[in-house]
Amino acid sequence: MPTHARRRASGHRRRATLRGHGYFKRLGPGIVTGAADDDPSGIGTYSQVGVAQGLSLLWMAPFLLPLAVGVQESTARLGLVTGKGLGTLIRERFRRWVLVGAVVLVASANTLNIAADLASMGAALRLVAPVPTPVGVVLLAIGMAAAEVLVPYHRYSRGLRWFALSLVAYLLVLFVVKVDWSLVIARTFVPRFSVNATNMLAMTAIAGTTISPYLFFWQASEEVEERDDGQAEPIDRSHLIAMRVDVWAGMFSGVAAMFAIMCTAAVTIGASGSVHIGTAEQAAQALEPLVGSSAKLLFALGILGLGLLAVPVLAGSTAYAIAEACDWHEGLSRRLKEAPGFYAAIVASMMIGLGLVAIGLDPIRALYLAAIFNGVTAPPLILLIVVLARSQGLLGEFRSGWLSLVATSVAGIAMTMFPVAALLLS
């Protein structure tokens, strides 16, 4: 193992072991990343796909789960072993144009995602409280930016892990509605779908929402944030095992929520004859006449809870990418005066997203377009991750094994094929 990695890296101190009392407290960046995967943009995308395609694309859940785990495990490995974020590693290992391209891709996708999420959160807030949507959007954006900048990191990260419990709302909704489980199981494990441009575009959106570029940068950087600097113990296999459990727990929860949302939308709104749900809050509202106000309330609260988790992750991911590319001081564990550029990037990312909402961004189109854009921008970043994670000089004995390599590579290939097929079939 490289000397610099052995010197700098140490394990997530709460995650050193995942056995015993306080399991939830021991989960680290993986559970936050998995929950942030189901942001309001993702909820809107999964709802729309469930309504329009019914149960035909449920097989995407078991197909994407190991691929998402492979990509996130590789990025977590990079941060854990090297003690450096993904942006720093790209800057050190590749040409400048590669670095600039990677940062532009992730920042652009994140900004559009933030705008779409804020618009959905404001509308969802109106479903549970008498707050005008524009006022709600502004208050949410300012509140999340202030919390990310001013609240100490370890307290802030604990809050993010509790927001991850919002995923439970979607699993509860699934058990409130009437489901033909034999048909659901058949469509989940025996794919039956038409090969056409519409389905290929839907698959691009689903994959882009599940395996999103912002999660790559966030996962690696949070592994660095979670290092216990007071104990400079070297990484060993136990740290990697704990990291994998954390990543699997996070991505499994995210994909389970995806499955629940698609299934719920298909058997309720889709079965009622509707063919279009453009936003997450529309999905919540449409559930009320079909299965009662409790399902609507759970769905809306889930949007808010996951939005409160995902938007700071999106803004933080952009800030990590920019700061690491520019070699600035960065990290949520630093104070504002220690990393002014990093925190300025967080605030700017949220404010630009808020500005897009203010000038009339169409949330219906933005939700779906953000997912598709994530799907298109992910493959080149996945290629960089594969190269870095297999580097003997960078990771030494802890470089990715063949299972991780296969999963990550298949993710990149599949996410390249979906939009290309959609373009050729259109």
3D architecture notes:
The protein has helices spanning 3-8, 23-26, 29-36, 40-53, 60-82, 86-93, 96-128, 133-150, 153-163, 167-176, 181-189, 197-210, 213-225, 237-270, 280-291, 293-326, 340-358, 363-389, 392-395, 402-425. Helices cover 76% and strands 0% of the residues. The protein has one domain: Hydantoin permease (Orthogonal Bundle), CATH 1.10.4160.10. Mean pLDDT is 81; it is low at 1-11 and 14-26. The longest helix has 34 residues, at 237-270. It is globular and about 55 Å long. The chain is mainly α and 426 residues long.
Characterize this entry briefly.
By secondary structure, the chain is mainly alpha-helical. 76% of the residues lie in helices and 0% in strands.
Q: What is the global morphology?
A: globular
Using the coordinates shown, work out and report the CATH topology: Hydantoin permease
> Per DSSP, what share of the residues sits in E-state strands of 2 or more residues?
under 5%
Number of domains: 1
Structural class label: mainly alpha
Give the fraction of residues assigned to helices: over 70%
CATH superfamily: Hydantoin permease
